[in-house]
Automatic annotation (TrEMBL):
InterPro entries: Dipep/tripep_permease, MFS, MFS_dom, MFS_trans_sf, MFS_Transporters. It is found in: Cell membrane. It comes from Qipengyuania marisflavi. The chain crosses the membrane at residues 85-103, 171-196, 202-223, 244-264, 298-316, 328-350, 356-380, 392-415, 421-442. This is Peptide MFS transporter. PANTHER family: PROTON-DEPENDENT OLIGOPEPTIDE FAMILY TRANSPORT PROTEIN (PTHR23517:SF15), RESISTANCE PROTEIN MDTM, PUTATIVE-RELATED-RELATED (PTHR23517). The lineage of its organism: Bacteria, Pseudomonadati, Pseudomonadota, Alphaproteobacteria, Sphingomonadales.
Amino acid sequence: MTAAVLTRSEERLWGHPKGLYFLAMTEAWERFSFYGMRTLLVLYMVQELLLPGRIDNVAGMAGYRSVVEGIFGELSTQAFASQTFGLYAGFVYFTPLFGGLLADRWLGAKRVVMIGIALMTLGHFAMAFDYSFLIALLLLVLGSGCLKGNIAAQVGHLYERHEEQLCSKGYAIFSTGINIGATIGPLFCGLLAQLYGWHFGFGAAGVMMLIAAVVYFAGLKYFAEDRAAAPAGEVLPPLTRIEWRMIALVVFVLVLTMFQSFAYEQMFNVGLLWVSERVSLSIGGFAVPVPWFGAEDSFASVMILPVLLGLWAWQARRGKEPGDFGKLATGAAIMAVSAGMLALGSLLAGEGKVSILFPLIAYFLSGVAFMYQWPTALALVSRRAPAKINALMMAGAYLTLFAVGVISGFLARFYEPMGDTAFWTMHAAFSATGAIAIVLIAGPIRRRMDMLDG
C-alpha cells in the first residue's frame, strides 16, 4: 500500500478518502461559475454587447469577427453570437487533451489544476468588462483545459487498484458536486444579471472561482501524490488489426450520438434566445430569469438519476434492461421530443408568445435525455476501447463535443431565416434520425464488437 494513496482510517470520511470531498466541492464551485456564466453568454452578446456603440469597445473584436466570417461567411448579430458561443463551447472540450498532456509529461495534475483555477478566475472577472470580453473567453477555454480532466483524474488517484467499486462510488459523489453546481450557478447568476445587470452575474461567477480555489488549496494535504510522468520516449505496442476494427466501431457509434448532441447543445445557444423572445415568462408578477431554464436541465439530470437506476434494476430483474444501444436510442428519442416541444410551442404561438410550460417540459426532457446518452456513451468507450489506448479514447470521446459545439454554432445561423418552428423541427429530426440509426445498427454492431472482444 503506497503512501501516495490516502487509506489510513483517520484520513477517510464515510468510507472514502477525505480528498474526495474537497475535490467534489472544488468542482461544484467551478461548475457553479462555469454554468452560471454559460447561460448568460449568448443572451449577453445578443441583447447588449454586440449592439452598435458597444461592440466597438471590445478589444480585438474587429479582427476576430473578420476571421470568423472569413471561415463561416457573413453573419447576422444573432448568428455571430451563436457561432461565438459554439466555438467557446467546443474548445472547452478540446483543450483538456493538452491539459492532460501537460500534467502527465511535465507539471503533474495538482500544479495544472491550480493553473486552471487561476486562469478561470481571471477569465470570469474579465467578463465583467466589455474591453476584455475576448480575452476572458480565451482565459476560460485555457483554464478549463487545465482543470477539467486533471481534477477528475485526481479522484481516481485516491483509491487503490483493488477498490474498483468504491472508486466508482467516489466518482458518483464527484459527479453529484458537478450537477449541484450546474444547477445552482444559473439560478444565482441569472437572477443577479436580471436584477443588477450582466456584469454582476459574471462577477458572481468570478467570486465562485475564488471559493473553488480556497477549497482546493485547503484540501491539498488530503490529495494523492501526482503520478510519475511517463517516459518521454515510451512507445506503446502497435495496435492489432482487431483493435483497429474495434476503434472504428466505437468511433462510428460516437458519431451517431452527435445527432442528439446537436439538439442538446442548441438548447443552451439558440434555445435561451428563443425563451427570451418567444415565451411568456411572467408568473404572478415575477419575470422568470431566462438562465434558470439551463439550471432546470441540470436539476432534471440530478432528479432523474435515482429513477433511472431503479427502472433499470427493475428491468434487469425481468431480463429486459436495455443495453448500451437501447439507452442511446432512448436518449436520442427523448431529445427529439424535447426539441419538438419548442417547435410545437412556436407553431401554436404564431406571432405571439408561448406558455412557459413548453420550455419547462423541453428543458426537463433534455436533462433526462442527457442521462440516457452521455454516461452510456462513456461507459461503452471505457468497456470496448482497446486497453492500450483506453484513456486516450475516453479523452477522444470529448472531442465529439468539440465538433458538436462548433457545428451547432454553425447551424444556429439558420434560426432567423428559417423561423423558429422549422428550426426546432429540424433539430428534432436530427435527434430522431440518430435514434433510428442506432436502432438499425445496434444488432450488427453489438455482435461484431462481441466477436472482436471474444
